[in-house]
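Researcher: For the record, we're logging two predictions in this thread. I'll number them. Prediction 1 follows.
Model: Prediction 1, sequence and structure:
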Amino acid sequence: MSTLKEIFESHSGRLIHKWDHYFEVYERYFAAYRGKPVNILEIGISHGGSLQMWRKYFGEQANIFAVDINPECKKFEEEKTKIFIGSQEDPVFLTQLKNDIPPVDILLDDGGHTMNQQVVTFQYLFDSVKDGGIYMVEDTHTSCWYAFHSGYKKKNSFIEFSKDLVDQMHAWHINDEKIVPVNTITQNITGISFYDSIVVFEKKKREEPFHTRRGDSTITEYTDTTLKKDSFLRQVRNKLFGKKEDSFSKQFRR
């Protein structure tokens, strides 16, 4: 069975334009869906070559849905490949799209790559991804580019938006619920992975995490009380941090 990179390299159909290192990331997350009746939604069709590539890779059982703002892309529609024409930053269109397609296993945002497009698409379509599915956004290096309405560390960038979602994923561990309250993101994202120009969100229903133990204790628990009783370690601590510990030294002792 050919890899996605091999399928791409032997491709002679419609134009496909990809960064070379994307194929390794695709393979990591998409391989488990090959040969299955997977539902895929791709935002951004362009010349239509990627639709041919996905068909070869996933097989004839795959149901492919795709979106582009260019009406000419409608000509790429065929059996088990459905094309929708509209803007990925139009809430009305995205709401209608959710009603017109089934829940998807994979959503790939390869659309216009502006900040508003990426953020709005995520806000409206993340809940269209099945439990256990993948939401992938590519070409996120545009978060560094002024031409795409952002720039390095800009608050409106998709990268900064994604970093905030990392905090949201950890909401159960934040002591003050007023700062980051638990919400549907916390309850439905089990992992967020950052690659060069790609962000991947793994969707899975989850409950509040807990820790547990098995087996017998074999050493004395090293606590703050233990440290205070150990004069040698106390001297080392004072030498490193001073007699009055700051917040960093307390974190260090944990």
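Researcher: Logged. Prediction 2.
Model: Prediction 2, sequence and structure:
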Amino acid sequence: MTTQAHAGDLLREWRQRRRLSQLDLAIGANVSSRHLSFVETGRAKPSSEMILHLAEYLDVPLRDRNALLLAGGYAPAYPEHGLDEPELKAVSHALGRVLAGHEPYPAVVVNRWWELVDANTGIAQFTRHVSSKLLEPPVNVLRLSLHPDGMAPRIVNLPEWRAHLLARLQRQAEATGDERLRALHDELGGYPGGEAPRPDRTEVVVPLRYRADHAELSFLSITAVVGTPMDVTVEELAIESFYPADDRTAAALTAHAR
């Protein structure tokens, strides 16, 4: 029989995840260190306002703030709607306009677990040669990138790109404590791809160099999120956009689109 964690347990885990001492958190959040100690040990029950105040300082994701409130005996504070629901109609339309406006360059919308939510037609540059099994929903774009039956055989700089994605995923898993992300990292880490060489000091970013049918393409990736989210779904969405890293790639994509 497992004992359900109370809000103090979870708050302590988030504090430790952020590498803060009790004193650091008490000073930064302007709360009594004695009261914070009592909250973490379960000797004092925090109010919903206190939970949200500490969660805000600790930069806890909205989904996990709701979990903190539930553990404290309170109702969740943040809704979670589907993108097809009326409440998120404006967000859904805005994302669609961003994807369409980015063509002919590839762009996707993903959720917290890197599952594909939407994409523009430019993404076909990356998907036309992958296994159909990897395109069955839910499509995980990181698995699609690094799987031997996915994009990996056509990524010219696979060791560098693989190391970049795995490091990014590891940071995300550590920052959120999400077991699904940890499991995904372990899975992707088991795929072949080689060890990345020492970084080239002359490069400012790691490009994605991809061997398409008509040319070798080079991309820079940029991540964008929706500002000031108050909905769990909206906060967990990100747009991954790929821009040409050189004139040859830009010309090739424009010519191919025509």
